[in-house]
Amino acid sequence: MSCSNDDDKTTLSDNSLDRDDVVSNYSAIILKNYQDAQADAQASKTAINTFISKPTQAAFEVAKQAWLTARESYGPSEAYRFANGPIDSGDTEEIEGLLNSWPLD
Fold this sequence. Notes:
- The radius of gyration is 20 Å and the shape is elongated.
- It has 105 residues and is mostly helical.
- It is built from three helices and no strands.
């Protein structure tokens, strides 16, 4: 089926799946992943800022775990990236590096 030219059909050849349903479901999965990644990134930012304001070992452990959690939910979203998107912009501030490494700065 992947080698056939069925781009102008609305259903798959066996009529078991509707293309719009597949696209809608896939979009919902991607949206949920991005929402989870955003929420975890915001929690990570809060934990890191708390650690910066009061650098204790306990605050460090909370910040580290929050970053690990955020990285875990961000990871699957990399599958949805396309060339020349905002993460791969090539701007002076390398966004990709900020997302994929422990914040040492």
